[in-house]
Each structure stands twice: as structure tokens, then as C-alpha cells.
Amino acid sequence: MILLVVTSSCTISRAAGILAARKKSLKRGFSTRQPYAVRPFLVSCYGFKIKNGVLEIPVARGKRLSLPLTIDTLDVISQPGAQVRSFTLTPNRLSLSIARDAPRVEWVSTVGVDRNLRNLTVGNESQIRYYDFSETVRIAKTTVSIVASFRRDDVRIRKGTASKYGERRTARTRHLLHNATKTIVDRAVQKKEAIVLEDIRGIRGLYRKGNGQGRKYRGRMNGWSFGEAQRQIE
């Protein structure tokens, strides 16, 4: 087995992210393990070439590791404007990061998106549309009640089970948001409308202890996925 170790900006960025997450956990008072790589992988964004349907990776002076690419991969990277920026190599998978110029759309009007706890309101002076998200509030309330009903003595098991319910809640919420945001973006592209989002950074500070609000109300408002809706639209 040949172990390839290449230091690149991509690798350094990933390592810095892992260390930053560990530092953040320590600052919050959570015990963490020493950071380590779960599986060996190679990430590089320079020094490689794609020639005659083969990815060539430099491993030593004058030596290159050749990896043949599939027909489907070659069809994608051969499209006009497509450029391979970097690659990730694991023991059983090769992933290519491809940059491609997006078609430029000249907009003729604007449409605003108002994010609320139970709905998304989209429109302008000519038309207004509402997307109901009451189901996301119900999902969050159900998940909180289920987790609160756990009576297992082992804290580790409780945390593991609660984490699974939290992931399920996140996945269902993202799916509901995706159905709406996809429609919003498709209609905006079709009608050549520029999407305008309100700047609500710092809104979490409105729902803190001591602001004269109830605990359940603060929990409901702080569980609002307004950032996810913006991420999907962007």
C-alpha cells in the first residue's frame, strides 16, 4: 500500500476547520477528543493533470500516479466552460471539484422574500404568494416532547437517541423548505426576477432569557430555520 501525503491549501483549510470546531467546543465547556482523521484521504488543488482520459497525480520527482476516469466523468469535464479545480482521493473513491460558469440572467423586476415562523411570503407590487410552514412548527414541537419524555439512566444513550430525533427533524424541515425554495427560484428565473432577502442577522438576540418572554416561546422562536431558507435560495 502506498501512502500519499501532500500538503495543499485545501488540506490546510480542512484541518483548520477541525481545530476551530474543537476550540469552539472547549470554549463552551464540552470535553473533546484529540482531533484525528477518520479515514486516509488526499486533497490537492495543484500539480495534477488530466490527459488522454487519465488523472495524473505527482507523487515524486518525475513520477506520477495515473488514475483512469470513467466515460461519464469525461463527458462532464469536457463540457464548455467546465474546469477541474481540485480532487479528493480516498482508498475507494475519487471525487473531482468542477467549476463551471453559470448562465447570466438579466433581471427585469424584483421579488421580495419575507421569512416568518409559520410561512414564507414572496411577492412584489403585482403578485403575492404564501408558503405555509406550520408543519415545521408541529415537527419541532413533537420532537421536543419526545426527547423530553426520555427516562433512561444512561446519559450517553439519551444523547445518542436525542441526536437521531434531531437529525430526523432537520431532514424533514429541510425537505419542506426545499419544496418551497425550489419553486421560488424557478419562478424567479422564468420571469427574470431578482430575489431580495431581508437582513435579519442578530434576530436571535431578541429571544433571550430576561427579555420578558416565556421559555417555550423562546425555544420555539430560536428553533426557527430562517437561515436554512436563505441558504437554499442562495
Q: Please state the overall shape, judged from the principal axes of the Cα atoms.
A: flat
* Helix fraction by DSSP (H/I, runs of at least 4): 40-55%
Give the low-pLDDT segments.
1-7
Would you tell me the structural class of the helices and strands?
Answer: alpha+beta
Biggest sheet layout: 4 strands, mixed
In what order do the strands lie side by side in the largest sheet?
9-8-7-10
- Count of strand segments: 10
The SSE order reads HEEEEHEEEEEHHEHH
Outline of the structure:
This protein is α+β, with helices and mostly antiparallel strands and 234 residues long.
What's the structural blueprint in terms of helices and strands?
Elements: H1 9-28, E1 42-44, E2 49-51, E3 54-60, E4 63-68, H2 71-77, E5 82-90, E6 93-100, E7 109-115, E8 119-123, E9 128-132, H3 134-148, H4 155-191, E10 193-197, H5 215-222, H6 226-233
Parallel strand pairs: 7-10
Antiparallel strand pairs: 1-5, 2-3, 3-4, 5-6, 7-8, 8-9
What does this entry look like structurally?
This protein has about 230 residues and is an alpha+beta fold. The protein folds into two domains: about 10-100, no CATH class; about 110-234, no CATH class. It is about 40% helix and about 25% strand. The protein is built from six helices and ten strands; from the N terminus they run αββββαβββββααβαα. The protein has helices at about 10-30, 70-75, 135-150, 155-190, 215-220, 225-234; strands at about 40-45, 50, 55-60, 65-70, 80-90, 95-100, 110-115, 120-125, 130, 195. Strands 9-8-7-10 form a four-stranded mixed beta sheet. The chain has a three-stranded antiparallel beta sheet with strand order 1-5-6, covered by helices on one side. The protein has a three-stranded antiparallel beta sheet with strand order 2-3-4, with no helix packed on it. Helix 3 (about 135-150) runs antiparallel to helix 4 and helix 4 (about 155-190) packs across helix 6 (about 225-234). It starts with 8 loop residues before the first helix and ends with a helix. Residues about 1-5 have low confidence and may be disordered.
